[in-house]
């Protein structure tokens, strides 16, 4: 007997960190969990979906995270930060059976919704979360700044230095700035997040 393609892919999709854009087959629901148990619930739910043959009703589980860039000791460090601690997103077709499987997974405290009826996320809400996670294309952040304006560097190795904007690179979310160091103009390329207008 051949197993449907969805069966063989489901545990891998649910068990790994979100690397690709999840395919939406049902609706996205927000599930409340014990804080700190999000990864365990993701793995446990994948096992329950497989053991209870719910691959045709429960498709994907996401833990909303975003990449955070920190600058420590002049070095750039990228870390993942939970956007909604204590919550996971489940893509599923709501039925009595699928509700039961998710609701009775150890660590799940319930669905988010009014009363006892879970309410799915609207398309714009899930798209905003997926954009924030970097799973779907987002437009680079826009900063209201012009060439020739004075800025202060907020983070990174040039923190607290002031400079003048020489070039805008909106497609990359960066600016080229001349910073005054040791009496000389030094050109540097900075992310929008690293600067503020004076």
The biggest beta sheet, please?
5 strands, antiparallel
Please give the CATH architecture of the largest domain: 2-Layer Sandwich
Q: What's the domain count?
A: 2
CATH topology of the largest domain: Alpha-Beta Plaits
Number of continuous helical runs: 4
CATH C-level category of the largest domain: Alpha Beta
Strands of the largest sheet, in order across it?
12-11-10-9-13
Radius of gyration, in Å, reads 22 Å
**Overall outline:** elongated
Query: Beta-strand level of the residues, as a percent range?
Result: 35-45%
CATH homologous superfamily designation of the largest domain: NusG, N-terminal domain
SSE order in H/E notation?
Answer: HEHEEEEHEEEHEEEEE
Percent in helix: 10-25%
Q: Extract low-pLDDT stretches.
A: 1-19
What's the total number of strands? 13
On the 0 to 100 scale, the average pLDDT is 81
Question: Could you characterize what this model shows?
Answer:
It is a single chain. The protein has 198 residues and is an alpha+beta fold. The protein folds into 2 domains: 128 residues, NusG, N-terminal domain (Alpha-Beta Plaits), CATH 3.30.70; 48 residues, SH3 type barrels, CATH 2.30.30. The protein has 4 helices and 13 strands. A hairpin with a 2-residue loop joins strand 11 and strand 12. Helix 1 packs antiparallel against helix 2. The longest helix has 14 residues. The protein is elongated. The N and C termini lie far apart (68 Å). The N terminus is likely disordered.
Any chance you could write out the topology, listing elements then pairs?
Blueprint: H1 5-15, E1 27-33, H2 38-51, E2 58-62, E3 65-72, E4 75-82, E5 87-92, H3 96-103, E6 108-111, E7 113-114, E8 117-118, H4 123-132, E9 150-153, E10 162-169, E11 174-181, E12 184-191, E13 195-197
Helix pairs in contact: 1-2
């Amino acid at each position: 007997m051949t197993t449907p393609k969805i069966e063989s892919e489901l545990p891998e999709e649910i068990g790994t960190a979100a690397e690709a854009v999840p395919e939406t087959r049902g609706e996205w629901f927000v599930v409340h969990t014990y804080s700190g148990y999000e990864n365990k619930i993701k793995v446990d739910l994948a096992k329950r979906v497989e053991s209870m043959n719910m691959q045709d009703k429960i498709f994907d589980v996401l833990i909303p995270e975003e990449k955070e860039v920190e600058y420590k000791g002049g070095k750039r460090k990228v870390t993942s930060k939970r956007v909604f601690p204590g919550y996971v997103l489940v893509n599923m077709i709501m039925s009595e059976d699928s509700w039961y499987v998710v609701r009775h997974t150890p660590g799940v405290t319930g669905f988010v919704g009014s009363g006892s009826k879970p309410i799915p996320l609207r398309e714009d809400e899930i798209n905003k979360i997926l954009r924030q996670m970097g799973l779907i294309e987002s437009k680079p952040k826009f900063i209201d700044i012009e060439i020739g304006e004075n800025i202060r560097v907020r983070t990174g190795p040039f923190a607290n230095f002031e400079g003048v904007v020489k070039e805008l690179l909106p497609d990359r979310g960066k600016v080229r700035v001349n910073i005054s160091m040791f009496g000389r103009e030094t050109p540097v390329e900075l992310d929008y997040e690293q600067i503020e207008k004076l």
